[in-house]
Write a structure and sequence with these properties.
Blueprint (H helix, E strand, L loop, with lengths): L12 E4 L16 E4 L13 E4 L5 E5 L1 H7 E5 L26
Antiparallel strand pairs: 1-2, 1-5, 2-3, 3-4
Length: 102
């Protein structure tokens, strides 16, 4: 796999692979896959806030690079160059179920 870029491109697919006390609220989501959404134009968010897009193509949660690299595995690194999604279509649903049954 290619080295992880400083800014993880939108449309990349990540999977939650671990939790700990600091991320205990994420435990029910172990094995769940998300896509990285387009970054916000907001000055408050910028490229520091990573949006996680759920199976339905909805922007569901946010994280940052440190948390993402610590708790998630990058399944597919996108080649997307447009970080803000200007003139891009909304992310579609994921084709296969990405939540692992417990």
């Amino acid at each position: 796999m290619k080295p992880i870029p400083e800014i993880i491109p939108p449309r990349s697919v990540v999977e939650l692979v671990r939790t700990d006390r600091a991320a205990a609220g994420w435990r029910p989501n172990l094995g769940r896959r998300f896509r990285i959404g387009y970054y916000s134009y907001s000055r408050n968010d910028g490229l520091d806030t990573i949006w996680l897009v759920n199976d339905a193509g909805e922007y569901e949660q946010t994280t940052d690079r440190g948390f993402l690299l610590k708790y998630f595995k990058i399944v597919k690194l996108s080649g997307e160059k447009d970080f803000f999604g200007k003139n891009r279509r909304r992310l579609p649903r994921l084709r296969s179920s990405s939540h692992v049954a417990s």
